[in-house]
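Q: For a teaching session next week I want to show students how multiple molecules come together into a single three-dimensional assembly. I've collected the sequence lines for a complex. Could you give me the predicted C-alpha cells for the whole thing so I can convert them for display?
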Amino acid sequence: MNMLKTILEEVLGLFVDDGVLALLCVVLIAVVSGAVLLLGLPGLWGGALLLVGCIAILAWSVARAAK
Amino acid sequence: MTATIISTVSAAFLASFVEVVEAFTIVLAVGLTHGWRPAFIGTALGLLLLVVLVLIFGPLLALIPIHIVQFVVGVLLVLFGMRWLRKAILRSIGVIALHDEAKAFAKETAALERQKADRRADYVAGLAAFKAVVLEGVEVIFIVIAVGTTQGLTLYAGLGALAAVVVVLGIGIAVHKPLSRVPENTLKFVVGLMLTSFGIFWTGEGLGADWPGADLALLAIFAVLVVVSLAIRQWAGSMRTPRAAS
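A: Of course. Below is the structure for the complete assembly, covering every listed component.
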C-alpha cells in the first residue's frame, strides 16, 4: 500500500512541483480553452495565447523564486 | 513529418536518459553493496510491472478520440515541461542545488550498508532497486506515451527511450560508477523546452489551432522558448548577483 502511495505521489509530482506554477498553467489553459470554445476565439489565437501565457508564467515564477 | 519524428525521438531519448541515469545510480548502489542478485531481481520485477502498466493503459488510450488525447496530453506536457524548465533555470542560477549523482549514490550506499546486518537485507536492497526502476520508469512511460501517442509515433518514442536505456547501461557497465559527469541540468533544460513546446503545440491542436507550417510550428515554438528561457535565465541570474555579493 505504501508502495502504491509512493507511486501515486511520484506521478502527481511529475506535474506539480511548485503548486502556484501548476495552478497558473491550469488557469491559463482553462481561460484560453473557454475563449476558444465559448467565445469563438480562433484556435490559432488560442495557441499563440498559450505560448505567450506560458512564457509570462515562467518569467514570473522564476523571478519570484530568485528574489 | 521528419521534423516531428526527429523531435519525438530526441525528446524521448533525452528525457529517458535523465531518468535512466537516476535509476541506474540506485541499482548500481544495490549491486555493489548487496551483490547483483537482488539488484537484478528488483530491476527485472520493476520492468515487469512497467510492461504490465503499458499493456493495461496503452490500449485504453486508443479508445479515446484523438483531439481529446491531444488536449489532455498537451495539458500534462505543459505542466511537466514547465516544471522541468523552471527547475533547470533555478538550478543554473544557483537558487536550487544541482542534482548530484555521486552524492545520491553515496547516500544510497550508506543506507544500504547500514542494513547489511539485517537478515532481510537482500529483500530490502532488491526492493530499493525495484522502487527506483518503477518510479523512474513511470516517468519514462509517460514521456513516451505523451510525445508519441498524439501522432501515432509511440514506436519511435519507445525506440528513443530504449536507446537511452542501452546508452546508459553501456556507459554504466563500462565505467562501473554512477554517471555523475552527465550534464543533467542542461539535459533537463533542453527536455523542459521540448516538452513545453510539445505541450503548447498539442493543447493548441486539441483546441482546433491550425498551426502555420503544420508540424514545423513545433520547431518555431521551441525556438521562441529557447530564446525567451535563456533571456529569463540571464535576467533572473542578474537579479540574484547583487544580493549574493552583499
